[in-house]
Amino acid sequence: MLSKKIDIRVYYEDTDSGGIVYYANYFKFTERCRTELLREIGLSQTEILNNYDLKFIVHSVSMDYINSSGLDDKLTVETTIDSLNNASILFNQSIYKFFNGQKIDIIKSKCKIVCIDSKSKVKPIPKLILDKIREEE
Question: Model-level pTM?
Answer without folding.
Answer: 0.92
